[in-house]
Amino acid sequence: MQEFPRAVLFDLDGTLIDSAGGIAWALDRTLVELGHAGVGEAQARAWIGEGARVLLRRALRHAGSALADDEAGFEHAFARLMHHYADSLPRQAQAYPGAEEALHGLRGQGVRVALCTNKPERFIAPLLDALAWHDLFDGIVGGDTLPECKPSALPLRHLADAFGAREAECVMVGDSHTDASAARAAGMPLVLVDYGYHRDLDLEAAGALAVTPDLRSLLVAAPA
Question: pTM score, two decimals?
Fold first, then answer.
């Protein structure tokens, strides 16, 4: 990066960690409980990125389940997913190469570091504990922390405000349409990783400052 931001906001799944194996494990156990076949990790990867509710609804529709459009039935299915999701957290704690070094490095340069994820808030602390990352973030917003989650601009603006920074002084780092749309809505510069859960996102056309294969590229020389 050429400029020194006041804060860097990171997406979690597909950006800092490769959680797809654990999420797919939880999703498949939920589907089997409901009488459907599991979909496997490859298919789950294609659906991850817009939160657990969207993930489950996609899986139920794929299975031809009426629960996808029956709110009471869907809430029951979602509760079962959350049960298995909690059990899957150790499987989700797979950091991408360079992620931990980037977090430590940015903090060492005086940059505020935040987590801005659509993962339900109650799962974040146990996952960070499994990664030994519990003290690496100056701010954390989960998918149910605020009235709106990404792709709304609200989580990004909330974190910028908490740091006393303008949106233009921060950077959102992510891997998906959800992250790109949230950054665009907030007027916040965007950096995308070239791995993760892109689905059909055109990385080169997303308006990012940079597309990087390694989060350590975020580290810059501190200004004099």
Answer: 0.90
